[in-house]
Amino acid sequence: MIQSKINLKDMQVDNVKSQMRKGILEYCILLILNKKPAYAPDIISTLKQAHIIVVEGTLYPLLTRLKNSELLSYQWEESTQGPPRKYYSLTEAGKTFLSELENSWNELSNTINTLKIQDNE
User: Fold this and answer.
1) How far is CA 113 from CA 2, 50, 54, 62, in A?
2) Is the pLDDT of residue 11 over 80?
3) Range with the lowest mean pLDDT among 3-12, 69-78, 96-105?
4) What is the pLDDT of residue 1?
5) Burial call 98-118: b when 16+ CB within 10 Å, e when fewer
6) Which candidate among 12, 15, 65, 108 keeps its CA 20 to 30 Å from the CA of 92?
7) 38 and 87 in contact (C-beta within 8 Å)?
8) Are β-strands 72-79 and 38-39 bridged in parallel, bridged antiparallel, or unpaired?
9) Other Cβ atoms closer than 10 A to 84
10) Cβ distance 76 to 31 under 8 Å?
11) DSSP per-residue letters across 29-69
12) What does each C-alpha distance from 73 to 1, 21, 106 come to in angstroms?
């Protein structure tokens, strides 16, 4: 009985962690592309280096949605190692959207930090 309660709690924590990762993935992608245009495998690599695991099956639909929302554009570039590569970059609308997300992130972060500090008092 105790074991099943622990497993349920672990599953709930994993679910919340997964939802949190999904919620910030778009923001993280926009942050990466704000630095410079990037090829999808480079975006995945950068996310993995930051300990955010994402697979192509998750990334490509998100990139397409962001492009269709006119937040991203892309440009084909020749590659010395195979076919041309699609490099994504932020549009002006994407930069504005990123700025709004940054404001929201800062507000949320400040709120959480305030709650954490109050909890320690």
Assistant:
1) 33, 21, 27, 30
2) no
3) 3-12
4) 47
5) beebeeeeeeeeeeeeeeeee
6) 108
7) yes
8) unpaired
9) 10
10) no
11) HHHHHHHS-EEHHHHHHHHHHTT----HHHHHHHHHHHHHT
12) 53, 24, 26
Mean pLDDT, residues 99-121: 89
Q: Token digits for 22?
A: 């999904």
For the record, the structure tokens of 107 come out as 């507000």
What domains lie within the chain, and their CATH numbers? 24-120 (1.10.10.10)
Closest CA to 62 of 82, 44, 84: 44
Q: What is the pTM of this model?
A: 0.82
